[in-house]
Amino acid sequence: MDDFADFYLSGKDAVFRAVLAAGGDRAGAEDAVAEAYARAYARWETVRVHPNPTAWVLRVAFNVRRSVWRRLRRKVLGDPPDRVTAATEPGGGLRRELATLPRRQREVVALRLLADLSVAETAELLGVSEGTVTTHLHRALAGLRHQIDPAGLTALRPTTEVA
Questions:
Q1: Secondary structure of the chain as H, E, C letters
Q2: Considering the domain 2-150 in this protein, what is its CATH number?
Q3: What is the pTM (predicted TM-score) of this model?
Q4: Which residue intervals define the domain HTH luxR-type in the entry (predicted)?
Q5: N or C: lower Cβ tally within 10 Å for the chain?
């Protein structure tokens, strides 16, 4: 099982960042990642021959988070926590900006940019088409750009011309 230990150590941080960025609180993301890796360990003989074991773990972690939210809906009136707030997650400037995006856009950003999955792998993991992935990524990045530079001031900066 040394190969599982290497797999875990090499990927756990990226998986955690992706799950956290996709939405939720730090403790919930830690729990989801721990559960996903525990399931991967239990099925390691199958998971290790998967074309992308990290994508398998990410899918399980995302599903675990969704299951927690479903249980919360049954227990508590109202919507489950879908966004990271400054009160639940101190610090995180970019994380705070990501939290304002719709869930699917956060998931696409987390998988494509933080977990470094391809468009095809992201589409398969989320169960959507590749075009949907690229559309969500484009909209998410446009939204983030607008949040970071709402007045479009970068377009007003003078250009330097060589005389």
A1: CHHHHHHHHHHHHHHHHHHHHHCCCHHHHHHHHHHHHHHHHHCHHHHCCCCCHHHHHHHHHHHHHHHHHHHHHHHCCCCCCCCCCCCCCCCCHHHHHHHCCCHHHHHHHHHHHHCCCCHHHHHHHHCCCHHHHHHHHHHHHHHHHHHHCCCCHHHHCCCCCCC
A2: 1.20.140.160
A3: 0.60
A4: 98-154
A5: C
